[in-house]
């Protein structure tokens, strides 16, 4: 999932999908859900935690009065307080406090944490909270858009933009990179200096200046010689002189330029190469960009945390909830039966997956008829 909102897929009725495709897609969806949702608490409102560093958020279109103020609710409140409502899934946002039940909701009271301040003054809102995205301000999915396109989140404004509206060609392996949209780059011009030295090779030049792409084909992960010469000497001098230098000033002095248009893509670890001198820290704080110095702020870090939490604290199985109302003997009988059927179904489907065949309704019907006959034989043997 990383920084991708999704790719709309359109398949004709004549197309078929093999079971192996279905199994792989199902596994990917489970991993994405674990990455995004497991990083947030599904049982307790996040409001007592204050402005959470990053969490999954939703905007309720059912509870928002027409023309009312934007509001966001946490994962738990989307389940407990807004079940069955028309919700806009916002993916994740940083430094946000749950609004559920505050004065922005005229009738709704939060079931999980009813005592809340009237407003959360530090929350930031965008047109995403109205179900609109990108510079084109369209909904997602867009019923009127017939173009297959991916949506990518800007790490600064956290809006989602269509790949075709970024003003540049989307690079390969975009899942491992962060993007800052052109609007946010222009609002913070110093970022263009960093972009000339640290951004993914070909940023924007593939669209407007192909000749410059050959000259500035840098790759941070492999650290070409020019990039190393830019950064390493400043570190050595700072150690020798025991006085911190400003990396941003050094990069400006070099004078390397790039086209200041289009979105900018940044490789993994680029934040650690930003200057952290006291002046730059103050400037970042003044621009409300201090989070750029925090590598744990990234969506990738949040997703990895979610996957780890999911592995440590797996969700409660609905089957086990149902078993709580049965006696011990009944529980054992159902568990054994369930495990046997699950194993047999997995083996049955695996044959189709290995051969790349499509499972038909007749195949599924045949499997359960066999299970039914087997169960009748077992019951007859017991009696």
TrEMBL record:
Its EC number is 2.3.2.27. Pathway: Protein modification; protein ubiquitination. Residues 209-236 are annotated as: Disordered. InterPro entries: UBR7 (IPR040204), UBR7-like_UBR-box (IPR047506), Znf_FYVE_PHD (IPR011011), Znf_RING/FYVE/PHD (IPR013083), Znf_UBR (IPR003126). A zinc finger (UBR-type) spans 43-115. PANTHER family: E3 UBIQUITIN-PROTEIN LIGASE UBR7. This is Putative E3 ubiquitin-protein ligase UBR7. It comes from Gasterosteus aculeatus aculeatus. The lineage of its organism: Eukaryota, Metazoa, Chordata, Craniata, Vertebrata.
């Amino acid at each position: 999932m990383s920084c991708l909102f999704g790719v709309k897929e359109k398949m004709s009725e004549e197309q078929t999908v093999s079971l192996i495709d279905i199994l792989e897609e199902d596994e990917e969806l489970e991993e994405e859900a674990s990455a995004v949702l497991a990083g947030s608490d599904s049982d307790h409102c996040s409001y007592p935690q204050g402005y959470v560093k990053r969490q999954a958020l939703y905007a309720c279109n059912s509870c928002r009065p027409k023309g009312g103020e934007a509001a966001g609710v946490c994962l738990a409140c989307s389940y407990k307080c807004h079940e069955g409502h028309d919700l806009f899934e916002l993916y994740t946002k940083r430094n946000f406090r749950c609004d559920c039940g505050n004065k922005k909701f005229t009738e709704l009271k939060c079931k999980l944490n009813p005592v809340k301040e009237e407003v959360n003054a530090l929350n930031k809102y965008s047109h995403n909270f109205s179900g609109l995205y990108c510079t084109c301000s369209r909904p997602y999915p867009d019923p009127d858009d017939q173009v297959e396109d991916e949506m990518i989140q800007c790490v600064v404004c956290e809006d989602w933009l269509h790949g075709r509206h970024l003003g540049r060609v989307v690079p390969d392996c975009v899942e491992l990179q962060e993007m800052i949209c052109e609007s946010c780059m222009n609002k913070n011009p110093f970022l263009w200096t960093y972009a000339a030295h640290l951004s993914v090779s070909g940023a924007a030049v593939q669209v407007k200046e192909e000749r410059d792409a050959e000259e500035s084909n840098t790759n941070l992960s492999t650290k070409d010689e020019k990039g190393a010469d830019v950064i390493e000497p400043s570190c050595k001098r700072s150690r020798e002189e025991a006085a911190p230098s400003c990396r941003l000033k050094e990069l400006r002095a070099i004078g390397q330029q790039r086209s200041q248009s289009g979105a900018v893509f940044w490789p993994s670890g680029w934040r650690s190469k930003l200057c952290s001198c006291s002046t730059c820290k103050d400037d970042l704080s003044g621009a409300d960009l201090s989070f750029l110095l925090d590598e744990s702020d990234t969506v990738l870090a949040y997703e990895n945390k979610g996957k780890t939490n999911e592995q440590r604290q797996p969700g409660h199985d609905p089957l086990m909830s149902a078993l709580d109302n049965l006696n011990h003997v009944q529980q054992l009988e159902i568990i054994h039966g369930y495990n046997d059927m699950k194993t047999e179904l997995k083996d049955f489907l695996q044959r189709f997956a290995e051969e790349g065949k499509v499972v038909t309704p007749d195949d599924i019907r045949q499997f359960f008829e066999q299970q039914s006959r087997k169960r009748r034989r077992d019951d007859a043997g017991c009696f």
